[in-house]
Amino acid sequence: MKLVKHIANLGYGSRKDVQWMFREGRITDADGEVLYADDPLDHDNVRVDGEPLDPPPGLLLMLNKPVGYTCSMKDRGRVVFDLLPARFRERNPALSTVGRLDRDTSGLLLFTDDGQLLHRIISPKSKLPKVYVATLAEDLRGDERATFASGSLMLESETTPLLPAELEPLEARRARLVLHEGRYHQVRRMFAAIGHHVQALHRERIGGLTLGDLPEGQWRALGAADRDRLFATEPA
Ligand code: URA
Predict the structure, then answer these.
(1) Which domains are assigned to the chain?
(2) Residue pLDDT, tens place only, 41-54
């Protein structure tokens, strides 16, 4: 692929814009030598205004999502893409969230531009556990754990029961819940089905991948070791 197209596909501008960036000498190699639009593509050696290029296609990143942001671009208000560099919205192939978190849910959210990887993460076959911490409006009664583990709990307007899920009480009104599938608003609907209201919800893990020390509202690109962690079923 031509260098100009590669840089345009990363969202730095239209091909025309990027042509201008070349003419203005803004695109250089790592030593500061000006590059030209038809120079060979060597991603790691390219600088735009002195900065390394954004990661190439095949990008997987994590965001520590705060409450108040939605995952759908169609929704009104703040969207999770507002927390990423603006040009990430213009990438080709497009970057999308891996599944969704509700506006009022915080925590680990993944994004990728790799359709196969996305499918592998969300596919029920991969059985990647998703781990949430829920804060409830009322104290746990003690019967919740067995109901969630039963494999027979049915959500309203659904026809197949939920897979067994593991509930670990943490405090009177706080519990960790491990899911092995991802249905619409699943955690809130599960608690609603047994008479509880979820006041706050946070996703802390997918597979073996956690947020680590990533601050709320921040993102980072994931490397090979993170991907291995993701597809491990336990945290490292
Ligand atoms: N379950 C929910 O109810 N909400 C989320 O955001 C994720 C899982």
Answers:
(1) 3-52 (3.10.290.10), 60-124+208-230 (3.30.70.580), 130-206 (3.30.70.1560)
(2) 999 999 999 999 99
